[in-house]
Amino acid sequence: MSLNNITKLFILISIFSFIVSCSKSSSTSSSDSVAYLSGGQGDWVIKIDNLTINQTNFNKDLTASMLYQGANEEQIALAKNDAATKQYYSEVLIRDVLLLKKAEADKFFETEEAKSILNAMIRSLKAQYYLQNLLIEASKSVPDPTPDQAKAFFEQAKPQLAQYGILEYNLQTAPAIAQFYKQTFAQQTVERQITDLKDAAIIERNDAVLGQLGVPPQQVIPQSTNDALLPRATN
């Protein structure tokens, strides 16, 4: 991952960091929701009024945020040693702390609407975080594709791969195509696990309240991926 891509990654991280910080304020004050950043070992990195964030806590928070986004050890190490990335993340933390302090003063998170929205966000984030880890573990068990398998996958998944700038199969694109291959079959494995969970659970829906099922509102509830054009794993 290039430093430009790492910067883009932090756009998503900043959203996540703010939601997580806010989530703790649903039961505690906003100041408590950033208290875990205070202190740590090493030299100080950021001071915001009476909050001091030292090196270990800064690096720990940076690492956790990148891990949540699926970064690997190499990408994290690169970020920790890049001044532009660390400066950007310091701005994320400063903004979040100041916003939360202002929100606390405004009693923003004490409203029922805010509590309901945060509860929905927290539930979704926890589920997505667990889902991400299931995908990572499943991907580890998928063997690397042979060149023939990778080429066949490329032919079937051209529309999706084109979105990432992969327009042909060659020595340069082969590693990325192999990674997408593993991720695709890992996703299919996890989807089967979710299906098994549904089959084992006792689930009832009150259609009198929900309404009769018609055409799924894809524009409202997007699927994780359109796998109709991707190869199916064989048992």
Protein described:
With about 240 residues, this protein is mainly alpha-helical. The chain has helices spanning about 5-25, 55-70, 75-80, 85-105, 110-140, 145-155, 160, 175-200, 205-210; strands at about 45-50, 50-55. A two-stranded antiparallel sheet has the order 1-2. A hairpin with a 2-residue loop joins strand 1 (about 45-50) and strand 2. Mean pLDDT is about 80; it is low at about 1-15, about 20-30 and about 220-235.
Which descriptors apply to this entry?
235 residues; mainly alpha; two-stranded antiparallel ribbon; 4% strand; disordered N terminus; disordered C terminus
How do the strands and helices of this protein lay out in sequence?
Layout: H1 3-24, E1 44-48, E2 51-54, H2 55-68, H3 73-80, H4 83-105, H5 112-140, H6 147-156, H7 158-162, H8 174-200, H9 207-210
Antiparallel strand pairs: 1-2
Helix pairs in contact: 1-4, 1-5, 5-8, 6-8
Helix/strand/pairing category: mainly alpha
Percent of residues in helices comes to 55-70%
- Low-pLDDT windows of residues: 1-15, 21-30, 219-235
Mean pLDDT: 82
- The order of strands across the largest sheet is 1-2
Summed up:
It is built from 9 helices and 2 strands.
